[in-house]
Amino acid sequence: MALSQGMDQAAVQAIAAQLDADQQAVTNLMQRAQGAVETLGQNWFGNDSTRFGSDWAMRSAQLMGAADVIAVMSRQARAQASDQQAASAG
């Protein structure tokens, strides 16, 4: 049944759990890529390698920012579900 107002708490909790999994996937991806870039840096030397490493540093910060945003979204969803449950019980 579609809600016109309110919240399906179980669905929101499930979405929060999926967001947690997505955040972890982004973090894992960033860590694997970091390892690859470090290995690359041990096998590639010169200006192009230095530029590549600098580009990665900027982009990895963006990935970590995305992971942080996903974690915040998950926490917000959980808090809203908890607030809804408390309001419904009271």
Helices and strands in order, then pairings?
Blueprint: H1 9-41, H2 47-89
Helix pairs in contact: 1-2
Describe this protein with a few key phrases.
90 residues; mainly alpha; Helix Hairpins; rod-shaped
Report what the structure shows.
This protein has 90 residues and is mainly α. It has one domain: Helix Hairpins (Orthogonal Bundle). Helices cover 84% and strands 0% of the residues. The chain has two helices and no strands. It is rod-shaped. The two termini are 24 Å apart.
Helix and strand pattern: HH
Low-pLDDT segments: none
Separate helix tally? 2
Query: Beta-strand percentage?
Result: under 5%
Main beta-sheet strand count, sense and barrel state = none
Q: What is the correct CATH architecture?
A: Orthogonal Bundle
Cα separation of the termini = 24 Å
Short structural description:
The protein is an all-alpha fold. Helix content is 84%, strand content 0%. It has a single domain (13-89), classed as Helix Hairpins, CATH 1.10.287.
